[in-house]
């Protein structure tokens, strides 16, 4: 405690006893401890203690209903100690709890304690509770974990634990997270949680800090930043026009692109300095609630203290405290109200991270490289740039003769220049119609070496646009990219779950000049047009292409595996991954491949100049000199992804097995009549890839190259089959592979993937729970945006593939979404999902999976007719649906898919299409019309209108399916009796407090804590405690004689607002004939009346 300067220490399993085993003396500290009454010196067990420094004002909390373990009806060894301490002008309750293992009935005893705790509480201890919400090493929760999760949900507590383990009994045993730290919502942003890496008796010490200062060491100074918060656009455009208009003739008369680029950059930078200005970046921005009025009050308070004026000082101190509290509340409210329905996901995530105190540190840890340690910013920057340069340096073990062949062929191509090559459409001069759309869509990203933000070009004046267009045309027609634009700043981004003390754990991201980004965007569109029109890219490549996504390789793989399930054949899959893909592209070989594709003229010359003689420098943690990188394309460049696809386009052209590619990820799979034939084909293809990689100087990450197997036969052992070899190394078998973010299992049931995404979703729900102690808790639309933007995408990624999951897996997904909605609405944990979805205007995940499948079908039909995915879908839909079922000799009808096929994507799409036809029987849906159906841009206007209206048709069908589910539900009879029709309720009423909103929702749902509406078992009577009548919602609002006087006033106000008799539907906000303002007023009055009755709802 002395070495860590800790003021409070929480200990569990102390085994202290006031008589038999008293605690040792701690000087300058006060000890609060509790013990088990059955403990003695020989059999001491359990016990908790809080050791508090005497500089803190601490006292024991004696008003809590602590359980008595000596009671005969409680067989528990639960021990807890609670204190109250004054800290930074507010009071905090601190608790320390120990729950022994296997004490399943101990945690529910904490419910009455948590109910009596103040609003600012910190709870720590050894709970011995395991749950995937906080323990990533736990596959399924134990009884204590489920009980603790219910307590956390009921009392809106926040878990500070990260994914690191806290307990490990032995290196041979699985670690666990049983030492937890819970805090109330309003304290969560003020508490910092860290963990030590030293084990003490199997447990790792945890450090909790309130209002911690995050400045431990001084990071490198940041460069100045442009003042773009509220710029004067008119002044900037006028200054640009006056600056560049006289320069147009001078720039137009010169052919020196280097001089023109420097002139434009320098002039634009000077205009920015004159009109926008720069500001220094502080590492710790001032507190936003410190206003000039508060500063003057603080100055006066300090002055009164120095002059020894106690009366004036006390008055000013109270004024400062009140002003700061009000300013904090106003600042938080203003900040969180920026989140609205039109906010982008990036803005919401940035605002949420900023509010939770999560900041990206600009400090690098000491880096180890070549047996040397770099601990200063200058040394770290030099180590990183040397490491990145070594990656882009060609190795000596590659074939030199092939390099000479490429050099000679490129030299011959330059000599055989044909002027007719310039007539190709992609070699035409750049026009204003290409430049202006790109300038208008520029986003505010980080600046490059020229320190010119995209905002300058987005608001460029006409003369500046003319100068930029003239520069681009001269550079393009000359076939030379200016050397002043061939530079880039490198930012090292740490890779997740890596050792950040090693340089290889960082990814280099290039920040380019603004003019270079615009120029690349124009060239990228032309090169993409050339590649798609000439079929230069393989059909198996799905990355960075229109109407394609990372789902396409997964669809092809799973569809093929399901087809092999019907034939009782296993499918062997091999996953390959390029090592340092973008950084290892051979520039001369890329030029040769572009030449072999038929690219000629200005575009070929410009790209050849673009990828040659590039220079880089580190910009963080320190700016270095420029270094030349022989190999690679920029990571962060707009043109680099397409150039990489061209470079690896022929890697799988000669393979026999099925394959699919997504950028640098290559997947092979094959299935034959015998497993030996399957392994022979795959080994042959792997050998072809070895030859190709050695030829073109690319390497594979052998640690990431694995193989897996898919089979319904449980007696099939994938590890007993012949070995697969790649570069002479046998591939490792992985039972649950992760392919493009999807966790696969041998039977393609996706149960493993569902459990993983549910765990991730619960962690994000815990982050949502943290916001409930802020002003954002009463802003339900903003919270729903967080649910739709962060929690639901985790549960819906690749949902087209696991549409036909089991009922239990589907229910797991629905529970995660329901837990988030339960936090927002304040519902009880037994509230049905249908009521939560109805109240929040969110559809169920099952219906959204149907919708995503139909949307994917529509996108597949937009692909070219010869695309691999569309060809497979068309062939299956019209020809291949009559497979022979497993273990039967009788073929199934041609129009009915087999059981295994119904679980595949095509089978699920067929069922969803049939449901859509049943929902709209009078409308035709040419999703799969015939094999000759063309993409939308090649068909008649009728088909084009169909594709434009398809989303609206899907929305109508989704609403109809929601109505059917709501009508057929048996779990919300009370809610349906008040609201029989399935239509949106009054707009997410934002009442003035979350408490009122929670009361009105529990009343209208029927799932509340009134006696006749309890859904937690028959533990309570159904009679009103005041009049012994049936305790229903209608009785409380209309009939209970205990509240007759306040009820008369309340109902008279309701009648005056609604101009109609007060009914239960009216009080709960269901009638559709009133305005939103009237419904909100009525709901507010109803909630206030219930709140005055002091009834627990």
From TrEMBL:
Q: What is this protein called?
A: RNA-directed DNA polymerase from mobile element jockey
PROSITE patterns this protein is in? RT_POL (PS50878)
Q: Start and end of every Reverse transcriptase domain?
A: 474-731
- InterPro entries per the record? DNA/RNA_pol_sf (IPR043502), Endo/exonu/phosph_ase_sf (IPR036691), Endo/exonuclease/phosphatase (IPR005135), RT_dom (IPR000477)
Which keywords does this Swiss-Prot/TrEMBL entry list? Nucleotidyltransferase, RNA-directed DNA polymerase, Transferase
The molecular function terms in GO held by this entry are:
RNA-directed DNA polymerase activity
